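Archive entry: two folds, one per protein. Generate the first.
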Amino acid sequence: MTQPPPSSPPPNQPPQQGAFGPPEPPQDAAPRDAVPQAPAPQDAVPQGPAPEGAPPFGPPAAAPPAPPEGPQLSQSPGGPMPHQAPVADQLRKNAQSAQSAQSAQAPQPQPQSGYGQPTPPQPQPGYGYPATAPQPQPQPGYGYPAAAPQPQPQPGYGYPAAAPQPQPGYGYPGAAPQQPSPYGAPGPYGQQPGYGYPGQPMTVPLQPPAPAAPAGGRRMNASMVIIVAAVAAIALIIGGGVWYAKSSGSGGQDGPTASGGTGGGTGGDDKDGVAKGSEKVPSDPGAKALFQLPMPTVAKDDSVAVDGSWLTDRAYVKSGVAEIVGYDRDKGTKLWTVKLPGPVCAASRRTDDDGRTAIVFQPKMPPKDSTAGCTQVAAIDLNAGRQLWTKTVNSGDALIDFDNVTVSANTVAVGSTDGGAAFDIASGKVLWAPKTSDTCYDAGYGGGAKLVAVRKCGAYDAPQLHIQTIDPASGRVLSEYKMATDIEYAGVVSTDPLVVAADVGDSAGDGSGISDFFSIDNKTGALRTRISAPGDEYAAECDSIDTPEACTGLTVGNDRLYVATEQRDDNGARSNSIVAFDLATGKQTGQRADSGTDYTLFPLRMDGGNVIAYKEPPYDKGGQVVSIDGGSFKETTLLENTDSEDARDMESAMSPEYSEILYSDGRLYLADTYADADTGGDKGYLAIAFGTSG
């Protein structure tokens, strides 16, 4: 996880910010500190989104005072939701940013108690009884009490329960205390403003490559039938970006797949109990350049964020400057365009089952080197090529700037230092929003198979992260894991199984944001295991300051974590590997895939039980896409790019650490995340595409 060289493209992350939120009151003031477990009474309020004017969950008072004024949502019905943390005052945010810059220089204090001890919730009085005095809560030590990556929505707050329990309704008592984690003390491990105008796409065909021979298949067994269906489902959404998940063979004909079997769908299992992949092995993996999209025109010395790329059955979809455009997958011709008033700030990597996704964008084109605020949230139908709705959220008289966005089930969730909000992806109906009465806030979410919130509590100079699995529709907390107080940010690597990455005590030392991974049980919130990943050994990265989901160089499947190692010198040639960790034990499985001489392996996503990886090439060859068998770890070549000079020049400009890379059905797409003015006479491209003929 080394720092990029000075000549590398700019990392896809905004400038470093200080700690989130203003100083917080004591944690026990939070209204959602326990996951209720008892059955709801007959008159319980439904657990879905609260109706307009509905009070937050909790025991009623005999004479409740007037509720504090919560944030107002424009273009949307519905009152305050019973989920979110307080909205930070803008002046206090500015003061906090200044203080966080100073605190970043001071050494982090190390807690003395053992890590991994979740804080048990206290029993709550019955409906209608006065609340008891808050009980002191033991603080966890160095380490994480059960955490995991991947985003999910979340209303009610709570501690993880020992087993999933039915949720009570309004005013019902909370959950029983959870069991402490068995893990002991840890070892000594220690940007996007600007303006511009979109350009027109063009096609620049290149010389076809020399064909390469296809590689072999893989073996599997049926020992893990119970988890096969789940693995096959999550494999379609875990990886380096949103991708086209449906099999697109030749007219529905069955053909050889990367699993060594036949058929165009996922599911089933083979000898190693690993779900079959859907990617077919082409008769000839040799690929040629299909098209290039020109870099949009921007002002001199300016840079504009163009985050977001997706694949559908028909289209390759890419964000440009103040627009989202769908292109023909093979030709690059425009199919449709969604115009926006300002640049895209953040884009979800996820889509729902109907091909809908979400973005955050600026309300207008800002002056050079400035921003108009990332206040607009919109849902985009990628199949129809149209914008479904646009929403904003107020904090007092000001609009909230959102840092990240994701999709889980039918929910769009957005996070910020002012708290998180959620909308129904079809209608834009508000599901929850920040509340000024809360003492914590949702900094961001991980989406996909489940919705996971990274919730920040405590004082701004000593925050504590709560990793919560939440119900996408209501925001109700299903389980929670509290991380140690020396962890400021967390990246959600996967939501199911839940895996979270963090830089504990800033010990990574390479800017990667990862020193350890935490495998967490989604149902109970208990820590399954902690995996040490020293920055000088592993090449994965998480831009978790603003975007918890922005993790690259890794993927999760088969209840294993697959991580790229750092490059090594093999007799003067570079190479690296992908290794696997068991998410139950935290130990390496012994599986290792090597890149080969002068290549670098970069895991992208799962395909059933197989790992899809990109091989960054040496200077005189084209890159490759390979499928690594989840059982045998045997590599099968799915695509090999032409080694023509023009193609190599284009491909080498798209560094995998800072580019969006999508692969499906013999098509490889590499895209930039910033639109920059041409420099040094070199012509840049917004995106390039390669494809096989077989």
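Generate the second and append.
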Amino acid sequence: MTGPTPGTRPEPDAQEPVGFGPPPAPFGPDQGPRPRPRSRSAGAVAAAVAAVVTALLLIGGGAYGLTVRAGVGVPGPPAAGPSGSPSVDQGDGKGPGGTPAAYDPNAGIRPGEARVWLRDNQAEVAGSGTSQYGPWRVGATVVAAISNGLTAYAVADGQEKWKLPLQTPLCGVPPAPSATGVLVVAVKETASDTSRCTHLQQIDLTTGKAGWKVPVPRENEHDTSVEFELAISGDTVAVARPAVMSGFSVTDGRKLFGTSKTNGCYPSAFAGGSRLIGIRHCPDPNDTRASGQAMVEELDPATGSARWSHKYDPDWTVGRVLSMDPLVIAAHHKDKKTWNIKAFAADGTVRSQTNPGFGVSGRCNGFGNASGFQECYAAAADADTLYLGAGKPGTSLGIDDTNQVVAVDLNTGKERWRTAEQPKGRTMWPLAVEGGRVVVYVSPGSGGGEAGAVVSLAAADGAAQPVLQSPAAAAGAQGVFYPHGLRTAWADGRLFLLNGRVYSPEPRKASRAILSFGK
């Protein structure tokens, strides 16, 4: 999937926020008649602001259209943010005279709407751009990283709090820091593009201070790589590279385990968090041309030893870990053009398996992207249900238009409910499950004027409620946070959007880096 260069996509003219329009046809056949939208009391309507967010639900055998208004049930005023310019040009997002800083995403903000802050990349990077990692919220700051350093921004208004330059470029970043806010990254030996990945660097995200730095000892004569796959679980940072793995203490950098013994299955990646999951590839010893088998295992973070392991059928590729607790994994079969979801019990036995009748992004089943096993930012789970950003199956295993949410029962593998499709250009990204409701980011539409919003869906049946609505003027800026590279974080009632790739600042062109709105 390709898109315009970030910062060059025209932003729509500011206009009155509007609803999603008439409900579309129900997803799939024989869904029954669509009941009339629910009505609200006069008091609730009076309390609602004018910005409209429509959640279209498809539940059980019937489709339900529900219109909800931003601000309803959202306690208190939005957090203070950067003040807006009284006179801005909303036509292209660059402001009068072409200065990106003059663009005001809060122009025309209405009572009850969540104030937005936006920061552009200011660092000089390679002409092809650089990957951006995060966002990680730690206390009152949110942190992002690019190849040559890390930057922390104030949660409330986006002001820069600290910056930490790195002596050599990043070559491995875990999906999340430790529970204490400590990140361990991999860095190259030198600044050369061809330099090997050789060291681990500890960084305290609370203070922005660099801690210990240790080399990663080679496990054998073939152990060399320009990139590491990292994951943190407890006090262990696990390091995977071709055919070997090792683990180090997050606290002091001590090596905890290492292996070059494969037992016929070669380590390839980790997923971290509440547990440590290893992913291996097991070649067919009798057929070197065969694809072999994928294996997943839960590891003891302190020793690297396997607590249990599970082999997939031949020719299946483990694509993404969709949830760590409960453990849910997506895999795909390229030749059969199908994919599946497996839920695992605590002892590694298969709890359920399903071949879904819906499509997801390649970022959520691994199709076309073999690294970053926790890169799906459109999945959330509770004890019994997985919630995925999804859409109609496409011509390939990875689709672009994930404009609905599907709930999958982890005990049976069957669909419990799904929302109806949102209008063209509006994607839905489950972020978290909180208080029996699924928090979902709804991206701006392609028709102009529809800014991003956060809604919540009842876990039991998908009934929708509004949570946050950003101003209409923010739609253009949010529209260049492209789904194929977007990284998100939801924490304490605030949403953070991070562009997965940024470019050097140029006259009359902004490279949008991070955007946030919330309480």
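Annotation attached to the second fold: The chain has a mean pLDDT of 82. The radius of gyration is 23 Å.
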